[in-house]
């Protein structure tokens, strides 16, 4: 199985990108790493990548345009599977080999994984109770096979108010199309570097505090609250726009 790993980046520290890239060597599976610059390419990031794509206009959408561009490029190159890795995240050892085994064992078209939350300095904090790879997914925890490649467009079609949670739109598209989704449980997982100020405050200062934000970690529950608050007509418009009918 030829797997492409797509990482969008903008102005994240090179050390974070290098950490994620290094984690690919511990997957028990060969991969091609595609980095996508969202308006701010750097030669240092390009040097890490097997392939480097530049979006000349910055989108400021949390990496969604980069995920879509890199994912569709991988699909056009006829990769057997495409997955995504946020610029601040990394894969736990054996993550991709576990996902590959899961889709083969279930003859699935996609696979999802749990996430473990880490502080902004990269030290572990706690498993995530919300994102278990079954009820909710993280943008770094989705593997797609060719029958599921149409879901790649969902990265950019997710409604703007919940663009930071576009992974839930990808999951909804897969479920709505009746795709078989494998979830290997504890054998696969991604490390999520949480940049939310409130999450990190109890742990004290770090050298990465300049990168803290007031945004909360991506949350499926937040998407649900936003969706349920929409008027029926607005909800229908979003459903049509995303092709979820």
TrEMBL record:
It comes from the Bacteria. InterPro entries: Glyco_trans_2-like, Nucleotide-diphossugar_trans. It comes from Stella humosa. This is Glycosyl transferase family 2. GO terms for molecular function: transferase activity. CDD domains: Glyco_tranf_GTA_type. Residues 5-127 form the Glycosyltransferase 2-like domain. Transmembrane segments: none annotated. Keywords: Transferase.
């Amino acid at each position: 199985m030829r797997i492409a790993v797509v990482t969008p980046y903008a102005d994240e520290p090179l050390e974070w990108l290098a950490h994620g890239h290094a984690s690919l060597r511990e997957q028990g599976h060969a991969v091609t790493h595609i980095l996508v610059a969202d308006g701010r390419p750097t030669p240092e990031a390009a040097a890490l990548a097997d392939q480097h794509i530049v979006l000349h206009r910055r989108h400021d959408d949390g990496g969604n345009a980069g995920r879509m561009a890199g994912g569709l490029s991988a699909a056009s190159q006829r990769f057997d599977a495409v997955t995504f890795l946020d610029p601040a995240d990394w894969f736990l050892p054996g993550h991709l080999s576990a996902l590959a085994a899961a889709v083969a064992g279930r003859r699935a078209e996609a696979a999802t994984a749990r996430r473990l939350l880490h502080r902004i300095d990269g030290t572990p904090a706690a498993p995530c109770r919300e994102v278990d790879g079954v009820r909710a997914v993280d943008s770094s925890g989705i593997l797609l096979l060719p029958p599921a490649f149409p879901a790649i467009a969902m990265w950019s079609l997710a409604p703007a108010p919940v663009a930071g949670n576009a992974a839930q739109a990808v999951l909804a598209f897969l479920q709505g199309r009746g795709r078989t989704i494998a979830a290997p449980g504890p054998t696969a997982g991604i490390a999520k570097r949480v940049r939310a100020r409130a999450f990190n405050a109890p742990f004290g200062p770090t050298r990465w505090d300049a990168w803290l934000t007031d945004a909360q970690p991506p949350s499926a529950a937040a998407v649900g609250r936003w969706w349920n608050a929409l008027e029926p007509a607005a909800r229908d418009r979003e459903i049509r726009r995303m092709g979820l009918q």
